[in-house]
From TrEMBL, chains A, B, C, D, E, F, G:
Keywords: Chaperone, Cytoplasm. SMART domains: Cpn10 (SM00883). The keyword Chaperone applies. It comes from Faecalibacterium wellingii. Heptamer of 7 subunits arranged in a ring. Interacts with the chaperonin GroEL. One of its GO terms (cellular component) is cytoplasm. It is found in: Cytoplasm. CDD domains: cpn10 (cd00320). Together with the chaperonin GroEL, plays an essential role in assisting protein folding. The GroEL-GroES system forms a nano-cage that allows encapsulation of the non-native substrate proteins and provides a physical environment optimized to promote and accelerate protein folding. GroES binds to the apical surface of the GroEL ring, thereby capping the opening of the GroEL channel. InterPro entries: Chaperonin_GroES, Chaperonin_GroES_sf, Chaprnonin_Cpn10_CS, GroES-like_sf. One of its GO terms (molecular function) is ATP binding. Belongs to the GroES chaperonin family. This is Co-chaperonin GroES. It comes from the Bacteria.
Length: 95, 95, 95, 95, 95, 95, 95
């Protein structure tokens, strides 16, 4: 089963917090907006979204930082994923 | 009886959750925004919507993910349907 | 007496729910937004509305689906009508 | 004394409800937005309003339908008037 | 001391209500938005405001109608004035 | 230490209220939006702000009127300053 | 580990308040919006953000003033950082 996001949406899979901590990134933040590291597993085509041209800049395999409460959670083949808009991705993380 | 959606609207028919689970997709999510799998049964013409050009990218027969609380529910010939705007469709699901 | 709607407004007359049910359409939905079938009895000229070009796509005699709580109700010559904006019309229904 | 409305504003004078009823129009509606028949007594020049071109389509003497709670009430030479934006006028009524 | 309003702002001085009543204008209205007659004492240059071209159409000496609760009150050389945006001026009043 | 405001921001320093009163300006207003006189001590470059061209029209040394609750307060070398957007400045005051 | 901010985002590292005070800058302000001095450690590429061209004007190493409650906090290799949009940066501070 495959999820193909529409427009400027991106499917991401949360990376385990423990694994992240080893790499040096520990997430803090208020209860209101808690960021998290996730891996990009599918990227929408971009194009005209709400009448504005959106160019997709993240790619499959990127590790990204998003707000924990952004997007919509789904489970695909047993894996928890989240569908977010690219604009809700704060940064790409490199090792 | 036939429903012809206007503008960027799409008529979708919820797919049974049990059937979906077999294919590997189990839906989770907060009570606030619960996604669901649905099949597209009619697609509006797109065009200028709120002053912006909208191109329809979903087609009849597509399996799509939407928020459960998006759109307006109707029953056509005994079948429960929902009318959503294309922008409320998160992703297309392929087997 | 005649009502000539301005801009992108449309005058619609609610179709009896019983009559609709015969044709196979039974309306469901949350208390928040209950759709209904109505017949178009007058259509505004469209044109520039809020700075955006609006082209009228519904026509007199069309059966349409709208949210029950859209628009403003008036009674013309004893008939209950509603004035809605075309953008609040979800779909056209054909027998 | 004369009121000259600015921009896309229109000065209207409420028509007596009894007189209206004779012509066949009885107004209903929720307490939230009650429409009323009024006569246009002055029309602003239109032009660029909030950065958008507005063309005035109503004219002095027109009978119009507006929401009762639109606009600002003033009394001119003993007559109650209301200043509304043209976009708050729902329809023109003809006998 | 002189106040030079910026952008699309206008400095107005409330005209005594008693004086107004003689001329035939009595102000009514809900507690929420009470209109008042005022005299324009300074006019901003207009130009690009929030990215939109604004042309000033009121001039010093005009009697104008505004909502009582629009703008910011200041006292200049003992006189109470109000700074409003031109878009909050409903109409010009002529005797 | 020097503060260089970004975009359409302006650094202002509140002028003593007592001094202002001598010049004939006494400030009144609701608790909600209390205007105040301030001196401009730094001006941002303007340019494209939120996608719109902003031209700076105030300059260092200008006495300006703003809402008391606009902007963000900072203390620079013992002096209380406020950083506001130029659009929050109501007027320039001249003696 | 490296954080590469997307779009118009900037990664900043809060500068110790004690150190700042020595330089002459003491921060005040309401509990609602408390500004703080931070050092820029990474800058996004800018470009089209929400359909509008954004040019990045801050650079790595700049000391900037932001609202304390802007942005999302993360910890990178033991250092607390915050990801903000460039538009939330009020000013650059120079010694």
């Amino acid at each position: 089963m495959k999820i193909i996001p529409l427009a400027d949406r991106v499917v991401i899979k949360t990376v385990e917090v423990e694994e992240t901590t080893k790499g040096g990134l520990i997430l803090t933040g208020s209860a209101k907006e808690k960021p998290q590291v996730a891996e990009v597993i599918a990227v929408g085509p971009g194009g005209i979204v709400d009448g504005k041209e959106v160019k997709m800049t993240v790619k499959v395999g990127d590790k990204v930082l998003t707000s924990k409460y952004s997007g919509t959670e789904v489970k695909v083949d047993g894996e928890e994923c989240t569908i977010v808009r690219q604009g809700d991705i704060l940064a790409v993380v490199e090792d």
